[in-house]
């Protein structure tokens, strides 16, 4: 089977690495891919994820059997629809399905309609009305750009007055472009966050192992939000009973609501949760694998990813059983200095091969490029160094041991990834 993977980040490297382990995968192409995917045996195609006609033409001309769409932007733009229209099987929702992530106002309205446990919220398109509302609040709020903002469109404000500046930046200064035309203002939830990813074939739901991401740039969860500075799995706060509750009270109702609204939701559904004193509440839904959550998830997956994705696309997910390595996995993101603000590109990276050769370690490329036979930085989040161990502490030790073998000018990482699980 010829597989075409769309995307070139850390999530896509992890997916490519796992897909190429399948006996069903004869050839994997990645558009545009990255040097890590190429080093693992994938063929990178110089097509940006925005070029839907070019990607569809390549898929037809290359007799691609199956397309896996990694990032949210091409899904929201309708790549899943375009691929299916030419008769090629696809993993990833339609543009209507991707609205669960690309339109937070829509998602919040849908959640409220089916009474999901989630934060109270109001939706605004007018800055002055939004400002008046936040200044009338007695407790903290979270301000969310409704559209896609690369994981950076949420600003948590412990004091309501602190929301005025981000509202002005989002709605008037357009720091996230058209994504900020509408904002969702939610009550600020407190507690530990966790992520549950589930395969969905329209009716059947298969919840995978839970994870915890680390969004803020600074240790102790301080500073600006990023796309994610690390993740680990499993999560101590989610036991079997809690997972059953999440499936029953959150996953089943939202999948049913989407089916009633537009038809089948097919692909992976990302559920971001806050574990409050009142129980788990939904922070957000995404229409794709998380990044960096995908990296430790793929490290723990023992069964065939391609088989599970194909079953999802063929609406027979009920035939699949996914097996997991019981050992925990920890992913530490190494980023460019200055991220999530401005940063330099093109800086040579050393030590990747040495780190990648360590037992139970895999270095996933996220923002790299190949230049003159060398690997250089090409993004804010550059590498996702991931390890498994018999305990969370051992996985953490292995991951950070590998991190210290890699270097470039200005490199930054958090030193507390998975501490919450170790101290639980």
Describe this structure in words.
This protein has 424 residues and is of the alpha+beta class. It has 4 domains: 2-94, 3-Layer(aba) Sandwich (Rossmann fold), CATH 3.40.50; 120-187, Dna Ligase, domain 1 (2-Layer Sandwich); 194-319, ATP-grasp fold, B domain (D-amino Acid Aminotransferase, Chain A, domain 1, 2-Layer Sandwich), CATH 3.30.470.20; 329-422, Phosphoribosylglycinamide synthetase, C-terminal domain (Glycinamide Ribonucleotide Synthetase, Chain A, domain 4). Helices cover 31% and strands 26% of the residues. The chain contains 15 helices and 22 strands. The strands form 6 sheets. The protein has a 5-stranded parallel sheet with strand order 3-2-1-4-5, with helices on both faces. The protein has a 5-stranded antiparallel sheet with strand order 12-15-18-22-19. Strand 13 (216-218) and strand 14 (222-225) form a beta hairpin. Helix 1 packs parallel to helix 11 (294-300) and helix 8 (127-135) packs antiparallel against helix 9 (164-171). The radius of gyration is 20 Å and the shape is globular. It starts with a strand and ends with a helix.
Taking the alpha carbons of the first and last residues, their distance comes to: 44 Å
Count of β-strands: 22
Q: What is the total number of structural domains? A: 4
Query: Which fold name corresponds to the CATH topology of the largest domain?
Result: D-amino Acid Aminotransferase, Chain A, domain 1
The fraction of residues in strands falls at 25-35%
CATH architecture classification name of the largest domain:
2-Layer Sandwich
What overall form do the CA principal axes indicate? globular
Oligomer: single chain
Compute the number of helices: 15
* Structure class: alpha+beta
Strand order of the largest sheet: 3-2-1-4-5
Largest sheet: 5 strands, parallel
Cα-atom Rg, whole angstroms?
A: 20 Å
CATH class of the largest domain: Alpha Beta
What are the segments in which pLDDT stays under 50 over at least 5 consecutive residues? Answer: none
CATH superfamily of the largest domain: ATP-grasp fold, B domain
Q: What is the average per-residue confidence, as pLDDT, rounded to a whole number?
A: 96
């Amino acid at each position: 089977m010829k597989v075409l993977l769309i995307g070139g980040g850390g999530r896509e490297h992890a997916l490519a690495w796992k897909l190429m382990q399948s006996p069903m995968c004869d050839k994997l192409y990645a558009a545009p891919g990255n040097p890590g995917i190429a080093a693992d045996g994938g063929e990178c195609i110089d097509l940006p994820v925005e070029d839907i006609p070019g990607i569809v033409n390549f898929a037809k001309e290359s007799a691609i059997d199956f397309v896996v769409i990694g990032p949210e932007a091409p899904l929201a733009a309708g790549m899943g629809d375009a691929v299916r229209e030419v008769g090629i099987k696809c993993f990833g929702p339609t543009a209507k399905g991707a609205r669960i992530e690309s339109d937070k106002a829509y998602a919040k309205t849908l959640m409220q309609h089916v009474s999901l446990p989630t934060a109270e919220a109001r939706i605004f398109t007018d800055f002055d009305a939004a400002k008046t509302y936040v200044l009338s609040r007695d407790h903290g709020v979270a301000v969310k750009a409704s559209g896609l903002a690369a994981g950076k469109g949420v600003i948590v404000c412990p004091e309501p007055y602190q929301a005025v500046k981000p509202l002005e930046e989002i709605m008037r200064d357009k720091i996230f472009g058209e994504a900020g035309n509408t904002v969702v203002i939610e009550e600020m939830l407190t507690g530990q966050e966790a992520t549950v990813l589930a395969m969905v074939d329209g009716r059947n739901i298969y919840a995978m192992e839970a994870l915890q991401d680390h969004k803020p740039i600074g240790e102790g969860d301080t500073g600006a939000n990023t796309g994610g500075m690390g993740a680990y799995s499993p999560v101590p706060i989610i036991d079997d009973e809690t997972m059953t509750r999440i499936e029953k009270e959150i996953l089943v109702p939202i999948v049913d609501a989407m089916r009633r609204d537009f038809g089948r939701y097919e692909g992976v559904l990302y559920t971001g949760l806050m574990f409050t004193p009142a129980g788990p509440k939904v922070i957000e839904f995404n229409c794709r694998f998380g990044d960096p959550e995908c990296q430790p998830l793929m490290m723990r997956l023992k069964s065939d990813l391609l088989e599970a994705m194909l079953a999802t696309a063929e609406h027979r997910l009920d035939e699949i059983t996914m097996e997991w390595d019981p050992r925990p996995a920890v992913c530490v993101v190494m980023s460019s200095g200055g991220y999530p603000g401005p940063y330099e590109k093109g800086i040579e990276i050393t030590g990747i091969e040495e780190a990648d050769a360590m037992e139970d370690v895999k270095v996933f490329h996220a923002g790299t490029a190949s230049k003159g036979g060398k690997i250089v930085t090409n993004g804010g989040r550059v590498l996702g160094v991931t390890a498994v161990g018999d305990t969370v502490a051992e996985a953490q030790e292995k991951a950070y041991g590998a991190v210290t073998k890699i270097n470039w000018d200005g490199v930054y990482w958090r030193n507390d990834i998975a501490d919450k699980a170790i101290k639980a």
